[in-house]
Amino acid sequence: MSLELKERLDISEEKFLQYFWDCWNQLRDNVTEELPMPPLFQFLTVMAFQIFTCEKVDVAIIEVGLGGRRDSTNVIKEPVVCGITSLGMDHTDVLGDTLEKIASHKAGIFKPNAPAFTVPQLPEAMDAINERAQQLGIPLGVVSPLRCEDFNGLQLSLAGDHQFINAGLAVALCKSWLQHTGNRGKLFAKEDHKAHLPDAFLRGLSSARLSGRAQIVNDSIPKCSNIASGDLIFHLDGAHSPESMKACAKWFSEAVKQHKNSTLWSPVNSFCTNQLTDAHCQNGFGHAENGNHSKNVKQILLFNCMDVRNPHVLLQQLITTCASSAATVNLFFADGYEAELIYSITFILKNLQCLRSSS
User: Fold this and answer.
1) Alpha-carbon gap, residue 81 to 176, rounded angstroms
2) Which of 117, 146, 264, 316 could, after both became Cys, cross-link 141 (CB 3.0–4.6 A)?
3) Segment holding 46, helix H or strand E
């Protein structure tokens, strides 16, 4: 889930528009009844490959859009290395209704002579991934999560325990690329598998940023708003499956607990439906006093739920995970709840800024 089209293409807006229209015009000029203009994702895939080629990048990281085997990105015949992250039940209408079927689609990105890596998976997923690797005769590495002590005093910048799993896979893929280019020996001792990560790896892992993933945005409610004055804290995450929602809820609960322990904030222990103005919930604000000082705080979690997903399944996972933690949180939703796409937060913040400017 991206906040803007060029988010993962590190080029200027001017260059992006130049490549966009160049690619668009070339495709449009060759449209036939049998070969119409491609859908958005396929178009962006073609444009991305054009950008990588024209800009002569040293390395291109290609992320599939949906599945793998039949994805529009899966046209690279000789990738340097392939990786599969943690799998869950998602896009079942296209990929299949079992984890084994989904894993089989994901493993469709594997190619002959290209090493593959994955992280610990449930048995049915791991069996399907292993089967594909064996069919191609390629090595499959199962990567362990990184540990706090691997960071030599630094911290992983992306929040959430699950990010240690992703970080471990990222390190394995980068090592494989260095091996392919003949540069691994410059950074890693051949036999010392327990050595600290090189400084370049540590800098990358401790500074990586991804908007809309375990992101906290602080803002204040403007005086001109009809909401009580106080602090707004937005928690943004692109969680869109039961598994990712569980990870999101664990992160959110921990963030709420940390905030509670570091401020005077004291959340109301309540769960409301239908009305955000329910008197029992005090508009969702906790209230704490210290002498004459009082502070209102509203913590808001935004996640991703498109039409093809069941919001009630995601919400149940959110409620269950938060309830099992020691954090006290308020959850608000209306009947017929449908979460907005994650980048809707951009418009919320812009609206708050406009209100502040006019006050």
Assistant:
1) 7
2) 117
3) helix 40-55
